[in-house]
C-alpha cells in the first residue's frame, strides 16, 4: 500500500469586499460587536453571475499550477460544498468539464463546514487503496447566495471562496492521519429548511425565507469547541504524535473565540495557530484549504512541517487530519 500526499494547493476569493461597516448600514449591528464576538472584519462576496464551480475552477487551476500537474493526469475530483451551482448535477461535474479533465470521475460531497476534511479523507482512502494516483480535492462555497441579510445572527459570519489541493500517491507518508465524525441528532441547529424533498420550493417557502441558512449559534458554538478539540487530539494520537510536535494548527475559520478555546484545550501556543478569519469570515468547506494556501504561500507552513487541520459544521459533522507538508 502506498501513501497519499499533497502536491499543490491554490485558492480563489471574489474581489468584492463586504466589511463590518458596510453591514452596519443594512442591519442593526456594529463593527465593534462583530469584531469582539467573532474576530471577523470583512468577507468576500461573489458577483450575481458567479457560482460555486467558477470559484472552484480558479482555485483548481492554481492548485494544478502549484503542483506542476497537467489536468490530464487527474483521475478524479471530490468537491465539498453546501452551495452547489444546482441541486443536481454536481458542481464537481461542471468543474470537470471546465478543466477538461476528461478521464476524471467527479462528485460533490455534502458535509457542512467539514466538507474539505471529508473530501480529503475520501481521497486519501482512494489513493492509499490503489484506485487513484492523482486527485483534485476542493472546498468551494458561495454562501452569500443562501444568506438572509435581514438576520444579523448569521449574515455577519459567512463569506464566499474556494480552495483546491492536488493529492498524489507517495512512497513516504504525507497525510499521517485523518479522523471523521458526525451527530445527525442535531441536524436542525444549522440547516436550510426549504428547496429539498422534505420541503420543496413553493410560494410559501419563499415567503417564509426558507431558502436561507438558519443557525442556533450558541448551541453550535458549544458543540464545535468540544468536537474540534476531541477530533484534533484523536488525529494527533492516530499519527503517533503529541500536540507539541504540531508546527501549525489550521482550523476551520468560524469564530476566533472557538479557535482560542480549542487552542488552549489542546495546549498550543498562539503563534502555532493560523487564522485569516478577519479577511474572509466563515467560508464553510473552503475555509481550511484557503487558510492552508495562505499559510504555505506566506511561509508559515514550510516543507517538512507538521500541520493539523480540523473542522466542524452542519450535520453535525467534524473532522481532523495531520499532514507532513
Ligand atoms: O461553521 C459552522 C459552525 N458555525 C459556528 O461555529 C458558529 C458558532 N456560533 C458563533 O460563532 C456565535 O454563537 C455567534 C457569533 C453566532 C453569536 O455569538 P454569541 O456570543 O453566541 O451571541 P448570542 O447569539 O448569544 O447573542 C448575544 C446578543 C443577543 O442580544 P441579547 O438577547 O443579549 O439582547 C443577540 O440578539 O447579541 C445579539 N446579537 C447581535 N448584536 C449585534 C446577535 N447578533 C448580533 C449582531 N450584532 N450581528
What does this 3D model show about the protein?
- By secondary structure, the chain is of the alpha/beta class.
- It has 2 domains: 3-172, Thiolase/Chalcone synthase (Peroxisomal Thiolase, Chain A, domain 1); 177-324, Peroxisomal Thiolase, Chain A, domain 1.
- 32% of the residues lie in helices and 24% in strands.
- It has 10 helices and 13 strands.
- The strands form 4 sheets. It has a 5-stranded mixed beta sheet, with helices on both faces. Strands 8-13-12-11 form a 4-stranded mixed beta sheet.
- The model has no long low-confidence stretch (mean pLDDT 97).
- Bound molecules: oxa(dethia)-CoA (UT7).
- Oxa(dethia)-CoA binds at residues 29, 33-34, 37-38, 113, 152-153, 156, 217-218, 220-221, 224, 254-255, 258, 282, 312-313.
- Residues 29, 33-34, 37-38, 113, 152-153, 156, 217-218, 220-221, 224, 254-255, 258, 282, 312-313 line the site of oxa(dethia)-CoA (UT7).
The helical percent reads: 25-40%
Number of helical regions: 10
Report the mean per-residue pLDDT as an integer: 97
CATH superfamily of the largest domain: Thiolase/Chalcone synthase
Please give the largest β-sheet: 5 strands, mixed
